[in-house]
Write a structure and sequence with these properties.
The chain is an alpha/beta fold. An 11-stranded mixed sheet has the order 3-2-4-11-10-9-8-7-1-5-6, with helices on both faces. It has 2 domains: 107 residues; 216 residues, Rossmann fold. It is globular, with a radius of gyration of 20 Å. 44% of the residues are buried.
């Protein structure tokens, strides 16, 4: 990837993804876009993985190894309490440039693997709808599972804040992890009925590089991928990781397309299958996304199958629900994803866009 393309990605990240979400990363991305020496660190990554979040995760991980460095003062994830000031960028710049070899090595060998547990609050209503249609305990198969935290979505408690009904509480009452999500309604939409519980019979995760949370270095990298000025996300990750270690799902290494059927075979064919994808299809090319949907359709011909997707419209639902221009992003507007539920009835594909969703699971807008 050229340096100019890297600069463009940094600018877009600052203006669209980080704006209003992460003052620290927005500031650093804007400055990095104008600094060739810093921006060029991302050229060590494979083109499809050369995203600004990878650069900031590498810097975060390097800082974790030097917890007494002055830059820590600007990282709330590591106990820092400084706000943005004139020293933020110079200190960050000198830190990464002086460790350029280490940063490049991380960028070249790692990918952004944000196992964002708050996204479970977005997936839960759609998975619950699929489970209701199935009528029996389901099997969960997450493609792009990272450490598999979303596979435990039935073990978390949820509080959906609504204008119409106040706080809607679902999930088990005795759990160490509770997630909050603002649930708004598009004009004309009805508040969804969200079941109190989901019964999951089997759970399997598929990833090109699944993360074993018992591996301290692997777990530290996942923490480094969480944006540094969002310590609440760090806390939720740690709680979910501790819960997962007590009853880990089965995680298998493999390709999202070539190994999908083999991963599905780990769940008995008598168990209805719900495949979930969350912010992973963007890493596939457009032809690969078509192949993935074709692989799902082929699998659906052999067993009852539902696909719950939470990704950009262009990166997922456009393949099964075309011509929904209302779901495409608007230039200059905050980015959002689309929660979709798809199933196959013989040769027919039945797909619905359920909600617009925020990147990290903090809010959703239910669609009419």
């Amino acid at each position: 990837m050229t340096l100019d393309e890297i600069r463009q990605r940094l600018r877009r990240f600052a203006e669209v993804e980080a704006a209003g979400e992460s003052p620290l990363y927005e500031h650093l991305a804007r400055r990095a876009a104008e600094d060739d020496e810093v921006a060029s660190l991302l050229t060590a990554a494979e083109d499809r993985f050369a995203h600004p979040t990878l650069l900031f995760a590498a810097a975060h991980r390097a800082l974790q190894a030097e917890p007494f460095h002055e830059l820590v003062n600007y990282y709330p994830s590591m106990g820092g309490s400084y706000g943005l000031d004139s020293g933020t960028w110079p200190l960050f710049r000198s830190f990464v440039v002086e460790r350029a070899e280490k940063i490049r090595a991380l960028v070249a060998t790692r990918t952004t693997q944000t196992n964002e547990v708050r996204r479970a609050a977005l997936l839960y209503p759609a998975v619950a709808l699929a489970a209701k249609q199935a009528g029996v305990p389901i099997g969960l198969l997450e493609v792009g599972c990272s450490a598999g935290l979303l596979l435990n979505l039935d073990r978390y408690a949820y509080r959906y804040q609504t204008e119409q009904s106040g706080q809607v509480v679902v999930g088990p009452t005795k759990t160490p992890l509770g997630l909050h999500c603002a649930l708004e309604l598009q004009p004309g939409a009805m508040l969804p009925t969200i079941p109190k519980k989901i019964t999951v019979a089997e759970r399997v995760g598929l990833d090109r590089a699944p993360v074993d949370l018992a591996d301290e270095e692997a777990a530290a990298w996942l923490e480094a991928c969480i944006w540094a000025d969002q310590p609440e996300r760090q806390r939720l990750f740690s709680t979910a990781a501790a819960l997962q270690r007590k009853s880990p799902p089965r995680l298998v290494e493999g390709d999202a397309i070539d190994d999908l059927a083999a991963a599905a075979e780990l769940i008995p064919v008598s168990v209805p299958l719900v495949v979930i994808t969350s912010h992973v299809l963007a890493y596939l090319s457009a032809p690969q996304r078509k192949e993935f949907v074709a692989a799902l359709a082929a699998l659906a011909a052999t067993r009852p199958l539902w696909w719950v997707s939470d990704d950009s419209y262009q990166g997922s639902l456009v393949e099964v629900l075309p011509d929904r221009v209302d779901l495409a992003p608007v230039p200059g507007q905050p980015a959002f994803s689309t929660l979709g539920l798809t199933r196959w009835d013989g040769p027919h594909v039945l797909s619905v866009a359920l909600a617009r969703t925020a990147m990290h699971g903090e809010r959703m807008v239910w669609l009419a």
